[in-house]
Amino acid sequence: MSKKNRAQKKIVFWIAFYAALICIVFFFVFPIFWIMSTSLKQRVNVYTEKPVLCFPVTWENYQRVFELQNFGRSLLNSLIVAVSVTLIIMYFGALAAYALTRWRIRGYSWVSLSIISARMFPPIALLPSFFLFASRLGLVDTRSVLVFTHAAYGLPFAVFMLAGFFRQIPRDLDDAALIDGCGYFQLFNKIMIPSIAPGLAAAAILSFIYSWNEFLFALVLTRASTKTLPVVISEFIGFVQVDWQGLTAMTTILMIPSILISFVAQKYLVRGLTAGAVKG
Amino acid sequence: MSKLPPMDQAETLPYSNRFKRQIKSHHEHRAPYWMLAPVLGGIAILVYFPLVNTFFLSFLRYFWNKPQQPIRWVGLKNYIDVFSDSLFQQALTNTIVFMICSTLLSIVIGLAMAMMFSRDFPGKNVFIALVLLPMMIAPVAAALTWNFLFDGKWGGVNYFVHLLGFSKQAWLADPRFALPAVMVADIWLNAPFVFLVLYTSLQALPQEPIEAARIDGGTGWQIFTRVILPLLIPNFLLIFIIRLMDTFRVFDLIYIMTNGGPGGRSETVGFLSYERTFRHFNMGQGSVIAIFILFSVLIISWYFIRTLQQQLQEQIK
Q1: Contacts of A86 (CB under 8 A, 6+ apart)
Q2: Is any Cβ of chain A less than 8 angstroms from the Cβ of B313?
Q3: How many CB atoms lie within 10 A of CB B254?
């Protein structure tokens, strides 16, 4: 009797477990699915009070979005900025992380404190003066100002993360190269960079996504010709009648890199993302 | 070959002559400074200098759309104006409500998920991948997604609300629901990260105390509350701080979803600072709010900064 009871209890438990699981997955996945499916719908199927689940797929929304002159350019801007930011952060971030992990330099605690707290400063606190400088120097509406801003803002986290990866490279490797007559920079470029490739991959992904997603700096520092994707999309709303077909198509395009990356590179990411928050 | 002494002691420890020649010690010891220079320089110019300048701006009467108007030093006047402004007070209240609710809810949801996934079941990895999907998505995209879902006419939320027998709402235009709606979007966007951190921490927990409690006859719930939760306290503290810090400066979601409205009911300090600076052209007041946010965030995150610094110091070999 008790055995049967226990079996029953177990079944009830697993039913409840899967029910809860499905609710959670639904909450996190449904909105994405909803946006993506709407972007493939024809007009009749978008503006209905009851969600349409079976519909003829159409690419007309994407076609229309790409015909907007602004959109293609902003996509290009976003890509150029994000790629440049990623390259800068990867190289200089690794360089700084290497210096921080291999030497106890003078003023070490101040250096590390200033790098780490730079990551915590809210961007909004820099923005008033940042905008003033940029407009004085005539840098507003250039891509380079955005690249430097994103790089400076993304570097601290990358340095911190890469330091964790350098720790795993044995000191013997440095020593061997030094004895063979390598200079420090040569050692770094030729030996260290290849050996922390996984760390660099994680840093690259996070920097790319950070720059791709970033909104506040881009909103303030760009004008007509250099707007990035999030800025252009944000301007698309705010009219009386919201064009949800176009917006869902744009949102999907904005989401795609993040979703692809979180599927393909999840293993790399987990360590990078949780750096600092998980001790272990 | 015997192990070499660490480089930081290179100048003080006696080496063999042969090795000394090869390490070129004096000249090359500038290397770490050159390596750090680009990052430190970049941060100094692009982060610290503007920060100090914002502090300076907060004492000025400065409307940047009127270049002919003289810029005047007004001392603490901007501070007094901002702190006695009822919109700022409302924004601060909203921000604190948003910060606390959003942080606590995302931690509760993240913890519940971490506990569920700490068990093995078929399809676990697929479910994890699905649940983590929102984590990397742009806040702008998340805001637009929820904008669409909360749409009064065509939104998916209203459909489900209707199914459950409640009346439809214009969520984002309703003073009661605007801020909670933004919270939902924030939790959707950030709970996966909380889950990921707590899940990885759970995997890294020492198994001995849990085993011991099980052998002593503890029930699942007892083990959870008396053994696992106390062991996770450091992780909770860090994730709590990260979330508080991020929610205190919420901007993107507000900008896209509600624009601070209706009637300031979802105004937050971050958004108000932007509005003052870039919509009212009032550099002084915008900077005051910016500085206020800066100090609040620094106070919140001080423990986190110190922890990270210690971890970084441990990385030295």
Answers
A1: A204, A207, A208, A211
A2: yes
A3: 28
Digit-by-digit pLDDT tens for chain B (317 residues) are 344 555 554 444 444 444 444 444 444 577 888 888 999 999 999 999 999 999 999 998 888 888 788 888 888 989 999 999 999 999 999 999 999 999 999 999 999 999 899 888 888 888 888 898 898 899 999 999 999 899 877 778 888 888 888 888 888 888 889 999 999 999 999 999 999 889 988 888 888 888 888 888 888 788 888 888 888 888 888 889 889 988 998 999 999 998 887 888 899 999 999 999 999 998 999 999 999 999 999 988 888 888 888 887 777 65
Q: CB count, 10 Å around CB of A140?
A: 17
**Which residues does A111 contact at the CB level (< 8 Å), separation at least 6?**
A100, A105, B36, B40
Same domain, B210 and B122: yes
- Domain with B42, as residue range(s), is 7-57
B240 and B284 share one domain = yes
How far is A132 from A140, CA to CA, in rounded Å?
9
- Closest in B131, B252, B304 to A24, CB measured: B131
Integer-rounded Cα radius of gyration of chain A: 24
- Which residue's structure tokens are 């063999």? B16
Structure tokens at A154: 């993304």
> With an 8 Å Cβ cutoff, is B298 touching chain A?
yes
- Count of structural domains, chain A: 2
Residue B196 contacts A where some CB pair is shorter than 8 Å: yes
Q: How far is B200 from chain A (nearest CA, A)?
A: 7
Q: Based on the structure, what is the number of domains in chain B?
A: 2
| CB proximity B144 to A under 8 Å | yes
Chain centroid to Cα B149, Å, comes to 25
Determine phi and psi for B264, rounding to 5 degrees. Answer: 75, 10
Residue A217 shares a structural domain with residue A141: yes
CATH number for A112: 1.10.3720.10
Is B64 inside any structural domain? no
B278 domain-assigned: yes
Other beta carbons within 10 angstroms of residue B87's beta carbon come to: 15
Question: Which letter does DSSP use for residue A66 in this model?
Answer: H
CA–CA distance, B83 with A3 (Å, rounded to integer): 67
Is position B69 within any domain? no
Structure tokens at B87: 């919109």
Of B148, B290, B305, the CB nearest to A120: B305
Instruction: Looking at the complex, report in whole angstroms how far the Cα of residue B175 sits from the nearest Cα belonging to chain A.
Output: 18
Same domain, B259 and B118: yes
| Residue B255 and residue B274 in contact, taking contact as beta carbons nearer than 8 Å | yes
Please indicate, yes or no, if residue B68 is contained in any of the structural domains: no
> The domain containing residue A23 runs over which residues?
2-39
Confidence (pTM): 0.87
B63-68: long-range contacts at Cβ-Cβ below 8 A with a sequence spacing of 24 or more? B63/B281, B63/B282, B63/B283, B64/A132, B64/B281, B64/B283, B65/B281, B66/B281
Shortest Cα distance from B59 to chain A (angstroms)?
13
CA distance to A150, B130, B200, B248, B253, per residue, from A262 (Å)? 21, 10, 16, 26, 21
Q: Are residues A124 and A211 in the same domain?
A: yes
Determine, for residues A266 and B315 on separate chains, whether the beta-carbon distance falls below 8 Å.
no
Going by C-alpha positions, the residue among B115, B302, B307, B249 that lies closest to residue B194 is B115
Distance of CA A217 to the CA centre of its chain: 15
Same domain for A9 and A103, yes or no, is no
